[in-house]
Design a protein that fits this description.
- The chain is of the alpha+beta class.
- The protein folds into 2 domains: about 55 residues; about 240 residues, 2-Layer Sandwich (Alpha-Beta Plaits).
- An 8-stranded mixed sheet has the order 2-3-1-5-4-9-10-11, sandwiched between helices.
- β9 and β10 form a beta hairpin.
C-alpha cells in the first residue's frame, strides 16, 4: 500500500509541474515548453493506467509469487515447439517487468521444443497478473517441421498457481506421497543437466506430479518440489470451494482449464486475438517477445466488471 501511496504522491507532483509548464508555455508562446508539458501528460497517463491495473489486484494471493507451468498439447513436435515459445514469452515478460523467474523443471521434446516446463516468477503482484493467462493457447502457422510446408494448428496449456509461503502449513501425510529421484537429461543447449539429484513427487490421492531438477542438491530440489506441491494443493482446494459456491448459488460455471483463451496466427495473416475480451493486435512478434500487458490488463478489467455486474 505504501508503494501505491508513493506513486499517487509522485503523480500528483508531476501533474502540478506539468500544469505550471503549460501555463508558462501559454503565457509566453513557448512551443518547446508546450511540447515538454505534452510529454509529461503522456507519461502521467501511462502511470495512471498502471495504477488502475494495480487497483484491480486485491485478491488473497494476488501479491504472491506465481508458479507457471506450460504443457504441450496435441500436435506432436509442433505443439512442443509452441510450448517452448510460450515459456520464452513469459520469461521475457518477466524480464520486462524486472521480475525474477527461475526455471524449476523442464522436459524436452523428442525432436524440438519441450513437453513441459515449470518456473516460478517473483515480483509485485506476480500471481495476480499472471493468473489471467491460465488456459489453452492456440498457434496457427506454417509448420517448420513439415517438409510440405502445410499450415498446422498447435495447442499448449498454461497453468498458474500462487506459491505459498514457507510458514503456510499444509497437512500432507507421508503415505500420500511417492518420491522418486532420477538423473536429469536433455536434448542439448539450455536443457542440459548432468546432475542425478532431480526429484519427482507424486501426490497419490490427487495424481498431482511435481518435479524439480535445477537446484544444486537433491535436498534443495525436494524442498522446492514440496513447496510447489503445497501451492497446487491449496489452489486446488480453493478452486473446489469456489466451484461449490457457484453451484449452490445457481451460477453458470465458467469454463476453466481446457478453454481456448487466445489465438496466435502467423499464417495466412498476422494476428493475436484474446477470445475473452476481443483485444487483438497484428504485432505478433512483439507479443511473443513478452508484450502481454494489453491482454492482461483487459482481462483483469473484464473480470472486475463481471464480478460487480
Amino acid at each position: 500500500m505504501s508503494e501505491d501511496t508513493t506513486a499517487y504522491d509522485r503523480i500528483a507532483a508531476r501533474a502540478s509541474d506539468a500544469s505550471v509548464l503549460w501555463e508558462l508555455a501559454t503565457a509566453e508562446g513557448d512551443e518547446a515548453t508546450g511540447a515538454e508539458a505534452g510529454r509529461e501528460v503522456d507519461a502521467l497517463e501511462s502511470e495512471i493506467a498502471t495504477l488502475e491495473v494495480v487497483a484491480l489486484l486485491g485478491g488473497e494471493f494476488d501479491d504472491s509469487p506465481a508458479i507457471l507451468e506450460v504443457h504441450a498439447g496435441e500436435g506432436g513436435t509442433d505443439s512442443q515447439d509452441w510450448a517452448e515459445m510460450l515459456m520464452r514469452m513469459y520469461q521475457r515478460w518477466s524480464e520486462d517487468h524486472r521480475f525474477k523467474s527461475v526455471l524449476r523443471e523442464v522436459t524436452p521434446g523428442e525432436e524440438a521444443g519441450i513437453k513441459s516446463a515449470t518456473f516460478t516468477v517473483e515480483g509485485r503482484h506476480a500471481y495476480g497478473l499472471l493468473a489471467v493467462e491460465r488456459g489453452v493457447h492456440r498457434l496457427v502457422r506454417i509448420s517448420p517441421f513439415d517438409a510440405a510446408k502445410r499450415r498446422h494448428t498447435s495447442f499448449a496449456s498454461v497453468d498458474v498457481t500462487p506459491e505459498v509461503e514457507e510458514a503456510v502449513e499444509v497437512d500432507i501425510p507421508p503415505e500420500d506421497l511417492r518420491i522418486d529421484t532420477y538423473r536429469s537429461s536433455g536434448a542439448g543447449g539450455q536443457h542440459v543437466n548432468v546432475t542425478d539429484s532431480a526429484v519427482r513427487i507424486t501426490h497419490l490421492p490427487t495424481g498431482i506430479v511435481v518435479s524439480c531438477q535445477n537446484e544444486r542438491s537433491q535436498l534443495q530440489n525436494r524442498t522446492v518440489a514440496m513447496r510447489i506441491l503445497k501451492s497446487r494443493l491449496l489452489a486446488r482446494a480453493r478452486q473446489a470451494k469456489e466451484t461449490e459456491m457457484r453451484a449452490l448459488s445457481g451460477d453458470k460455471m465458467e469454463i476453466g482449464f481446457g478453454s481456448q483463451i487466445r489465438s496466435y496466427v502467423l499464417h495466412p495473416y498476422q494476428m493475436v486475438k484474446d477470445h475473452r475480451t476481443g483485444v487483438e493486435t497484428g504485432n505478433v512478434s512483439a507479443v511473443l517477445d513478452g508484450d502481454l500487458d494489453r491482454f492482461v490488463e483487459s482481462e483483469l478489467k473484464r473480470k472486475a466488471a463481471s464480478t460487480h455486474a
